[in-house]
UniProtKB/TrEMBL annotation:
<dbReference type="InterPro" id="IPR050703">
    <property type="entry name" value="Flavin_MAO"/>
</dbReference>
<dbReference type="GO" id="GO:0016491">
    <property type="term" value="F:oxidoreductase activity"/>
</dbReference>
<feature type="binding site">
    <location>
        <position position="434"/>
    </location>
    <ligand>
        <name>FAD</name>
    </ligand>
</feature>
<dbReference type="InterPro" id="IPR036188">
    <property type="entry name" value="FAD/NAD-bd_sf"/>
</dbReference>
<feature type="binding site">
    <location>
        <position position="246"/>
    </location>
    <ligand>
        <name>FAD</name>
    </ligand>
</feature>
<feature type="domain" description="Amine oxidase">
    <location>
        <begin position="13"/>
        <end position="458"/>
    </location>
</feature>
<comment type="similarity">
    <text>Belongs to the flavin monoamine oxidase family.</text>
</comment>
<keyword id="KW-0560">Oxidoreductase</keyword>
<feature type="binding site">
    <location>
        <begin position="33"/>
        <end position="34"/>
    </location>
    <ligand>
        <name>FAD</name>
    </ligand>
</feature>
<dbReference type="InterPro" id="IPR001613">
    <property type="entry name" value="Flavin_amine_oxidase"/>
</dbReference>
<feature type="binding site">
    <location>
        <position position="14"/>
    </location>
    <ligand>
        <name>FAD</name>
    </ligand>
</feature>
<protein>
    <submittedName>
        <fullName>NAD(P)-binding protein</fullName>
    </submittedName>
</protein>
<dbReference type="Pfam" id="PF01593">
    <property type="entry name" value="Amino_oxidase"/>
</dbReference>
<dbReference type="InterPro" id="IPR002937">
    <property type="entry name" value="Amino_oxidase"/>
</dbReference>
């Protein structure tokens, strides 16, 4: 006899949306979450002042909350925008007055129009590369990337080999390498061309993913993105259980039994919403089909350290700079001004991706902070060396995430075993942003996957 209709594994946005929709349909549901908080890869937190031990004496800077996980929302992320509206959570535009900086091969350029951030030859090279990339991406079937017209050919090569073949200039090649690191948090030699094409197409195109106004970085959530998960969890109340890492899922024709710290919960169906790389460390009895196992072994995460440096005021605006920086020199390759709407502080967010994140994560905290601040100072001047607050979140070190922003697939994985991504195994269903067709890797994709999984289990319940 089942305790509940559905067990959901993981209280990230995708798990909470799954549970919310199952409960709204009048069915019973329990969410089991490994961490002592909800939200998963969304985490909104205060910033400790510089000079104090953040563990012993957090003394956060008054009223300031930053997003150490997901932070931005695009105008076409309609599912996320609907959740924000449902809970009365506001957004604030990302675009700041002033020039952005592009620094490549030792040369720095100020620009307002992204299309003019390079010299004319590099601009033309990037434009032809983008055209060829978009033409190929349009051929990818985002619902089934393994099935598209040229799937086998695209999946037999890395994105790096495409870059070398396509771009005619060194700076053009550097641009696409930086784009890959910024979007997937991994170097282009680690990832299948088919996966990059799919991922870009899933989010409305590569340029859209890289764009601030109107694109993936269009706006930020006032008070932090984690509020979405917190509000969903508030509504679910006692049905969300924290500190309950799921270790084993037993399944047969009669039902499901999900084992966590406090024992077993029985149900008709289970939805596993943890990232595929972590889903593979749960024991399934009986074991999963081989294609599913092979797939989850081939979906590593990127590496990201997200840093916030807080200043008394946004001093870079004195020099008519917007605080937005793209550079080929780590660790400060991707920087945004994320000061609060009232500018009570000046806040710079640094997204340290790929190899730079691995390097930064291996340094002790003081050396890592010094490396980041020196990087900022090289673009914005010596004032960048003196923040009043500093916070760095290394997602690769997080036991229940192990890297981000999401999973990427190496050559061969999509076409050989990709069809196992969403296919239920008996009573076990799969969700999480990695399973989304649209906005895969983003919060919007997490919501879409939760809605899809909820519909699947509701249709299958007795
Ligand atoms: C630094 C960073 C920046 C990002 N920026 C953006 C952005 O600007 N915009 C955007 O849209 N997206 C962004 N993302 C991506 C976004 O955060 C994710 O796509 C989304 O939050 C994924 O939600 P999810 O529910 O699918 O997975 P998760 O959030 O990973 O949720 C999975 C949950 O499962 C739990 N779990 C894991 N294993 C177990 C287990 N064995 N038992 C029980 N529970 C378990 C985890 O603790 C977690 O709570 C960013 C992510 C990061 C880390």
């Amino acid at each position: 006899m089942a305790n509940v209709d559905v067990v959901v594994v993981g209280a990230g946005v995708s798990g909470l949306v799954t549970a919310d929709r199952v409960r709204a349909a009048g069915r019973t549901v329990v969410v089991l979450e490994a961490r002592g908080r909800v939200g998963g890869r969304t985490l909104s937190e205060p910033v400790p002042p510089v000079g104090t031990d953040s563990e012993a004496d957090p003394k956060p800077l008054a009223g300031l909350v930053v997003d150490s996980g997901a932070g931005w929302v695009a105008p076409d992320q309609t599912l996320l925008l609907a959740e924000l509206e449902r809970f009365g959570i506001a957004t604030t535009p990302q675009v700041r007055p002033g020039d952005a900086l592009m620094s490549m091969r030792g040369k720095s350029r100020r620009y307002t129009d992204a299309a003019r951030s390079f010299d004319p030859v590099t601009t033309a090279d990037i434009a032809q590369g983008m055209l060829r990339f978009s033409a190929a991406a349009e051929k990818v079937d985002v619902a089934a990337p393994w099935r598209g017209e040229h799937a086998a050919r695209y999946d037999a090569q890395t994105f790096e080999s495409w870059i070398r073949r396509t771009c005619l200039t060194g700076k053009g090649r550097d641009y696409f390498r930086l784009a890959c690191e910024a979007v997937l948090a991994t170097a282009p030699q680690n990832v299948s061309l088919l996966h990059v094409l799919f991922y870009a197409q899933s989010g409305g195109g590569l340029l859209h993913l890289l764009t601030t106004g109107g694109g993936a970085h269009d706006a930020r959530v006032v008070g932090g993105m984690q509020q979405v998960a917190e509000r969903l969890a508030e509504d679910l109340g006692q049905w969300v259980r924290l500190y309950e890492p799921v270790s084993t899922i037993m399944h047969d024709a009669d039902g499901i039994s999900v084992h966590s710290e406090s024992g077993a919960t029985t149900a008709h169906r289970v939805v596993v919403t943890v990232p595929p790389a972590l889903a593979s460390s749960i024991d399934y009895l009986p074991g999963l089909p081989q294609d599913r196992t092979l797939l989850t072994q081939r979906m590593p995460h990127g590496s990201v350290v997200k840093v916030h440096a807080v200043y008394r005021r946004p001093f870079w605006r004195d020099a008519a700079l917007s605080g937005e920086i793209a550079s080929d020199q780590g660790p400060t390759k991707v920087v945004f001004d994320t000061s609060p709407p009232d500018d009570a502080y000046g806040v710079l967010t640094v997204l340290v991706d790929g190899e730079d994140a691995v390097r930064l994560g291996s340094m002790d905290a003081d050396r890592a902070r010094d490396a980041v601040l020196r990087g900022l100072a090289s673009h914005l001047g010596p004032k960048a060396m003196d923040p009043v607050g500093y916070l760095a979140k290394d997602w690769t070190a997080e036991e229940w995430t192990r890297g981000c922003y999401g999973a990427h697939l190496p050559p061969g994985a999509w076409t050989q075993v990709g069809s196992a991504l969403r296919t239920p195994v008996g009573r076990i269903h799969w969700a999480g942003t990695e399973t989304a067709e649209r906005w895969c890797g983003y919060v919007d994709g997490a919501i879409a996957s939760g809605e899809r999984a909820a519909a699947e289990v509701l249709a299958a319940l007795p």
